[in-house]
Design goal:
Layout: E1 4-8, E2 13-16, E3 19-27, H1 28-31, E4 38-49, E5 57-63, E6 66-74, E7 76-81, E8 86-90, E9 94-98, E10 103-109, H2 111-116, E11 118-128, E12 139-143, E13 150-152, E14 158-164, E15 166-167, E16 170-171, E17 180-187, E18 192-195, E19 202-209, E20 211-214, E21 217-220, E22 224-227, E23 234-238, E24 242-249, E25 257-259, E26 262-264, H3 267-278
Antiparallel strand pairs: 1-22, 2-3, 3-4, 4-11, 5-10, 6-9, 6-11, 7-8, 7-10, 9-12, 13-14, 14-17, 15-16, 17-24, 18-23, 19-22, 19-24, 20-21, 20-23, 25-26
Length: 283
């Protein structure tokens, strides 16, 4: 089994456009290539939008060189991008946007949700692309809840939604550029199970709610366990009813350079991305 390397916490909360509160769980500015291919994780909410709200979300902005994965637990978000991708993602749905060579998009609370109001909670994860794919064509995947397989764990201990990669013979619907597992897990208190990863893989566990134990160390909600890359598989023990994400994958062993909405391999490529955006070449 992989052993715990460290627990990472960041209690900084802020607003991204009209999305608030947003917890910055980690970013590449802090951890660099330590957890490649993952670059950033934001936990949006839990929050409540008042009925007839004028709040929208995040207006048009660019990306290049990576992918954004948005997991909606509660609420409704409407996406529209410069390549024609878009739609409304609801509770249980996942939006996977491959920015690659460049795209502009906006993410708003849906009009109906702003009228009715309600609770919202989301995760946004950034996934790096290898150099060979950074300037490939942008792509958009809308993964509805019905498309995402659910594996029921033995003895009624919980369930696992397979968004990307594989678990217990089920394959997630997301098409990825590198080998990645994204598992959305719910487990009852006092349980233990093993999640498959390969030796050499990055493996992290982000806890949305509850309490987990790794080796002899306990982790509370909003903590992220980073596992060592030696050995295979992860054992997770629950001390309370818990919701968590298991993220694992093959590291991209390349230097990268990130500034704002762009993740490339060199500083010169970042300057080119800003210049292309200024000249309207990202859509």
């Amino acid at each position: 089994m992989k052993t715990l390397a460290f627990i990472h916490r960041n209690d900084t909360r802020f607003a991204v456009g009209d999305f608030s509160p947003v917890l910055s769980v980690f970013s590449h500015y802090e951890l660099g290539n330590t957890i490649s291919p993952f670059l950033l994780l934001d936990h949006i909410g839990p929050g409540h939008l008042a009925p007839l709200s004028t709040k929208k979300g995040v207006d048009e902005h660019p990306h290049r060189g990576f992918e954004t994965v948005t997991i909606v637990y509660k609420g409704e978000v409407e996406h529209k991008d410069s390549k024609g991708g878009g739609g409304i993602i609801r509770g249980g749905d996942v939006q996977w946007m491959t920015a690659a060579a460049g795209i502009t998009h906006r993410e708003f609370f849906s009009e109906e949700f702003r009228k009715q109001g309600g609770d919202f909670e989301m995760i946004q994860l950034w996934v790096n692309l290898p150099a060979r794919d950074k300037l490939s064509a942008p792509h958009y995947q809308s993964l509805t809840s019905e498309q995402i397989p659910v594996v029921e764990l033995p003895d009624d201990m919980g369930s696992v939604r397979v968004i990307a990669g594989q678990f217990d013979g089920e394959s997630g619907p997301a098409k990825t550029h590198t080998r990645i597992n994204i598992l959305d897990v719910r487990m009852k208190a006092g349980q233990s199970t093993v999640f498959p990863t390969e030796a050499g893989d990055t493996a992290i566990v982000y806890l949305l709610s509850g309490q987990l134990q790794f080796d002899t160390e306990n982790m509370d909600a909003a903590g992220m366990a980073v596992m060592g890359n030696q050995n295979a598989d992860i054992e997770v023990k629950t001390l309370a009813d818990s919701r968590f994400l298991v993220l694992s994958g093959e590291p991209i062993n390349e230097p990268f350079f990130g500034r704002g909405p762009f993740i490339m391999n060199t500083f010169e490529e970042i300057l080119e991305a800003f210049e292309d955006f200024k000249n309207g070449k990202l859509g």
